[in-house]
């Protein structure tokens, strides 16, 4: 069998290669591996927000039916790799190594039993005495962290170009407002879960994660092991959105429990335990000051953001990131402050920074447009940045003009009447608003191996993760095109630390990073085949090729990394989000019948999975705008709405039409496959676009998310 030249599969909206497994239940999640002799663990959590565990009474639990062990701060094994340099660590777990309580809901014990039900019952029998202290829970009154501890994702606390005060002094129009976003918690369908199984001194973890290698590194370090003593597998993850971007406490606790009872242990967080122990988006208080001439030219931009972290780590929501690069102005300043509260540590949450930050910046730009009586799109075009204003570097590519034009056209923006409360449909007030979307295009080093097998299938392996985005599918497409074979000849595998190392599936890096590696590996395999058998797969049979290789499968392993282009260009995706809302004039109910988007994300690998990414991001943006908010009791620090009945995310009835468009974009610089990633940009700009539409409908400016109806009524 020889291969004719194939039409490229990249870009086509092919179905997911794992679709059948997903819909038939064949795609196993971490907790679905039925290991023999498995025991079940349940985490016991603190019921105070600050203080110390004085005593844990485990007697009742230990004698309860089926209970095998109760791990507490008093009896847990001391882990050699925990403590010491922890302050510098990005992620500080709580692993029963000391008795300090940092937040309400913190893991302080683990009950292991023969069944999940017995473990749950046992966990409820554990009684804890605390030395309780008054928790710090109010971001407005808590002391600010020292400036040198404020490092947004490793970057600078502040940025300063030109002289903002001078720019404001010369401005004809000024906008100066404070916008807030609440604490939000990730709620993927699949809660965090681990199965830990020891084989002598080696450990295997079946883990629900976005980062198998980062879990491996952290768990190995905690136990004082080398990384090669720990294997982490994750073939399917049921959503993560940042909360599974790195290790927390439960992976190591599961391994501690497994070692204690000398059996494999399964540990699945409860939905309530998703609120606190595994991150969330912090509260932000953002002040945006804009100065502009009458013509709309921005003379100054200042954006400061105060967010909360926990008392364990210094995590900064990088909410001013987009303000440093989105609009051309000679005078731009940004700065962060951080406040420590007795809450769970915050972390990455879909488009960390840009999702919360674009709410503030793009709301302020809308306010400025009304002040100037200027069309909001025209204002943005007036201040279009043709180079990165912060670095001065050229963009690797930027199609934001085309995004505005395309989305405005598809939306029908030219029919908008600019006055607030000027559009109606029956009794409903109709509002049209827009905002800009943006997110960095990142790439990290990644490895891939590829093997031509005797049956003609090509085995491609990369230790990445499938978190629901379509990674199996797009990597199969990239591999197929690079080799020149149909997609069904590729068997793409991911999800094990025994495969070549790949970055965590965070920060929209996967398509660009793993994709570049897969492309490079298959190009190398093709060259190897060609060298061995001129004409390659087009004029030789697989049997022939393998025979010429001494009967052995042909294999290549490569490691692919970004180069000089990273220093030469500024790399970002951009987009535009146009929203129609309807607001009930008496009840202030806000509905979102339609959102139209256009994005430039480089090359679109699969039109169907890319569209799903944007639709998912927009849907979450609707939740961020109208529904999502974690309530924490100001006295006890307890997470009050820690379940899906009370923590509201959008359901189908909340989501109207989401009309997704992509601007064709050829980026020759960003990476060899021209891909920028589409995982996070979809949520950016959405909350502002909706809030701006609410203002247009009602004349009421909501600067605090979520846009709840009582806020619309009372403003
Ligand atoms: Mo994404 S919030 O970096 O998983």
Walk me through the structure.
25% of the residues lie in helices and 23% in strands. The longest helix is centred in the last third of the chain and has 23 residues, at 510-532. It is α+β, with helices and mostly antiparallel strands and 715 residues long. The N and C termini lie far apart (72 Å).
Strand fraction:
15-25%
Radius of gyration: 26 Å
Mean pLDDT across all residues, rounded? 96
User: For the largest beta sheet, what order do the strands appear in spatially?
Assistant: 3-5-1-12-9-10-11
Main beta sheet strand tally, sense and closure = 7 strands, mixed
The poorly predicted ranges are 1-5
Separation of the first and last Cα atoms? 72 Å
Ligand set: dioxothiomolybdenum(VI) ion
The helical percent reads 10-25%
Can you count the helices?
17
Would you tell me the structural class of the helices and strands?
alpha+beta
Global morphology: globular
Number of strands: 24
């Amino acid at each position: 069998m020889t291969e004719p030249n194939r039409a490229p599969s990249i870009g086509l909206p092919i179905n997911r290669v794992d679709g059948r497994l997903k819909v038939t239940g064949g795609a196993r999640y971490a907790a679905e591996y039925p290991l023999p002799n498995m025991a079940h663990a349940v985490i016991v959590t603190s019921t105070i927000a600050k203080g110390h565990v004085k005593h844990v009474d485990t007697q009742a639990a230990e004698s309860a039916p089926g209970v095998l062990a109760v791990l507490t701060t008093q009896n847990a094994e001391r882990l050699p790799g925990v403590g010491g340099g922890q302050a510098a660590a990005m992620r500080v777990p709580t692993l029963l190594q000391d008795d300090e309580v940092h937040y309400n809901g913190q893991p302080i014990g683990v009950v292991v039993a023969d069944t999940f039900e017995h473990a749950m019952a046992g966990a409820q029998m554990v009684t804890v005495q605390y030395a309780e202290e008054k928790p710090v829970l109010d971001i407005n009154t808590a002391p600010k962290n020292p400036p040198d501890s404020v490092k947004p994702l490793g970057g600078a606390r502040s940025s300063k170009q030109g002289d903002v005060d001078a720019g404001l002094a010369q401005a004809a129009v000024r906008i100066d407002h404070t916008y807030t976003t609440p604490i939000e918690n990730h709620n993927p369908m699949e809660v965090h879960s681990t199965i830990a199984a020891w084989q002598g001194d080696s450990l295997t973890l079946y883990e629900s994660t976005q980062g198998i290698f980062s879990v491996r590194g952290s768990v190995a370090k905690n136990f004082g092991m080398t990384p090669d003593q720990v294997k982490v597998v994750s073939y399917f993850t049921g959503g993560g959105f940042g909360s599974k971007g790195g290790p927390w406490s439960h992976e190591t606790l599961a391994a501690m429990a497994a070692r204690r009872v000398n059996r494999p242990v399964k540990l699945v967080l409860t939905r309530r335990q998703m609120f606190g122990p595994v991150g969330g988006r912090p509260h932000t208080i953002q002040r945006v000051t804009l100065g502009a001439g009458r013509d709309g030219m921005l003379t100054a931009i200042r954006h400061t953001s105060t967010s909360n972290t926990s008392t364990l780590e210094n995590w900064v929501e990088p909410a001013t990131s987009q303000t440093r690069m989105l609009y051309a102005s000679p005078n731009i300043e940004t700065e962060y402050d951080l406040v420590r509260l007795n809450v769970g540590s915050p972390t990455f949450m879909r488009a960390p920074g840009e999702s919360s930050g674009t709410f503030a910046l793009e709301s302020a730009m809308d306010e400025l447009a009304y002040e100037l009586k200027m069309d909001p799109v025209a204002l943005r075009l007036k201040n279009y940045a043709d180079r990165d204003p912060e670095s001065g570097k050229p963009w690797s590519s930027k199609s934001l003009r085309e995004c505005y034009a395309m989305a405005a056209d598809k939306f029908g923006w030219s029919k908008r009447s600019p006055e607030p409360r000027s559009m109606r449909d029956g009794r409903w007030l109709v509002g049209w608003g827009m905002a800009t979307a943006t997110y960095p295009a990142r790439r990290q080093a990644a490895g891939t191996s590829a093997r031509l097998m005797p049956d003609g299938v090509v085995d491609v392996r990369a230790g990445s993760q499938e978190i629901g985005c379509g990674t199996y599918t797009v990597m199969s497409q990239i591999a197929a095109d690079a080799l020149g074979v149909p997609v069904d000849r590729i068997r793409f595998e991911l999800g094990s630390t025994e495969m070549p190392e790949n970055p965590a599936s965070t920060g929209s890096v996967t398509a660009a990073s793993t994709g570049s590696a897969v492309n490079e590996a298959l190009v190398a395999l093709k060259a190897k085949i060609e060298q061995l058998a001129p004409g390659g797969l087009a004029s030789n049979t697989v049997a022939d090729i393998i025979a010429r290789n001494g009967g052995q499968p042909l294999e290549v392993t490569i490691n692919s990394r970004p180069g000089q282009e990273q220093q030469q260009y500024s790399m970002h995706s951009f987009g535009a989000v146009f929203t129609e809302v309807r607001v009930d004039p008496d009840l202030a109910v806000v509905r979102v019948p339609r959102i139209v988007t256009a994005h430039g994300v480089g090359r679109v690998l699969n039109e169907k999975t890319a569209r799903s990414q944007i639709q998912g991001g927009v849907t979450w943006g609707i939740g961020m705008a109208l529904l999502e908010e974690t309530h924490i009791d100001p006295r006890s620090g307890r997470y009050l709405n820690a379940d899906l009945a009370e923590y509201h995310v959008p359901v189908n009835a909340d989501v109207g039409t989401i009309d997704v468009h992509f601007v064709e974009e050829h980026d020759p610089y960003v990476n060899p496959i021209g891909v920028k990633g589409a995982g996070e940009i979809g949520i950016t700009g959405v909350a502002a676009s909706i809030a701006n539409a609410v203002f247009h409908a009602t004349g009421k400016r909501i600067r605090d998310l979520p846009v709840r109806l009582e806020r619309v009524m009372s403003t």
